[in-house]
Specification:
2 helices, mainly beta, about 130 residues, about 15% helix, 8-stranded antiparallel sheet, globular
Amino acid sequence: MECFYRLRQNKVHIPYDEIEPATLMGIYIDKEKNIWGVSEGLAMTMVETFENDIESCMIPDSDFVLIYDGDSVFEIAGNKYVFYDCLIMKAGKKGLCAVRADEVEDARRAFRNQTATYQVGPFSFSAYRIS
């Protein structure tokens, strides 16, 4: 099974507390803001599916990298946003690395600290602000 667990709603494949702390994974956040732990192999496959449209940025004050499809970036009032559907990995000495299971909460917190609900005229939206 490629998907280890889901941290929202009632769909749990393997409970989070049963995952070994050293387990390596990518953290996928889907468009509905559900958070999935995916195997390291699946995470790398997801990165490859972005093909030439892959973009990434360091999550401030962390060693985590946000990876997303460049076609999903939205520009509003001179700022760029990604509406979830992204992957969190770690920056390593040799490139992207998987996140250890015991670092998932740190990665989620770093991501959450960079997301907000924004107001543009009469419209509001939740997103991760890239710039």
